[in-house]
Design goal:
By secondary structure, the chain is an all-alpha fold. The protein folds into 3 domains: 43 residues, no CATH class; 41 residues, no CATH class; 155 residues. Helix content is 60%, strand content 0%. Helix 6 runs antiparallel to helix 7, helix 8 packs antiparallel against helix 10 and helix 9 packs antiparallel against helix 10. Keywords: Coiled coil, Membrane, Transmembrane, Transmembrane helix, Transport. It is a multi-pass membrane protein.
Amino acid sequence: MAQSRDGGNPFAEPGELDNPFQDPAVIQHRPSSQYATLDVYNPFETREPSRKLSPTEPKNYGSYSTQASAAAATAELLKKQEELNRKAEELDRRERELQHAALGGTATRRNNWPPLPSFSPVQPCFFQDISMEIPQEFQKTVSTMYYLWMCSTLALLLNFLACLASFCVANNNGSSFGLSILWVLLFTPCSFVCWYRPMYKAFRSDSSFNFFVFFFIFFVQDVLYVLQAIGIPNWGFSGWISALMVLQLNTAVAVLMLLVALLFTGIAVLGIVMLKRIHSLYRRTGRCDELVFPRPHRRPGHGARPVPVVGREHPAVPP
């Protein structure tokens, strides 16, 4: 009986021969997930039909948000890398400056301004190197102020020529011609020493005192720039009023004076803009309040230890 059920296999185990669930007909009809039989069928379950990708459809390797976050992280890394490179350049510049100061003193750090020939009996009076002495984030500001000083010097020279031309046209403009010579000889060196050098030293060494000197003197310089642009008669400035008065006498001289007045106006506007910009940079460092309102000393017991006064005997504290 068992041999006929198992197909006549004499080597089959007795347990397998007597187990009715090992019948191939029963095993074939067991419930599985591939067939929706009553045992595994759930009417409330929603199944999505499987969709096959077409050969031309690209594979989805990640969502858009994942790609955007990866791009943002890459941009942040690049930004940090640029900042590190800038700091490395700043450290290299500081190191070169310290090496120059330690090695040579006056031998390697010779004065280079004003640039005069070697055979001149007058030697340079100042050392100036914006790329080496000024921090990188302030080099553009210091260079702009240097160009502003050069433009003001050029404007004073043109003002001298315009006053000379107006003196040739009208003999009553002799006082303006004489004052224009005085302004060239006085304002050119004084402006460099009185407001440009303090500004240069302030950005070089972060000095609050030099900033204060620069703000005070350059404010007066801006007022003079405005007066130069206005051109009050007999003040030695070829401004708008003086140019319009000469326009009735000679057109060519009036055009020259108008060009000088336009140059004075541009210098005055740029001076006011740069004064405001440097003041904002100074306030950003947090030193403006310390200059106007000195930082108060902390009292003992508020996070700082009391400083003993030399020469004063303190009474013994009882136990």
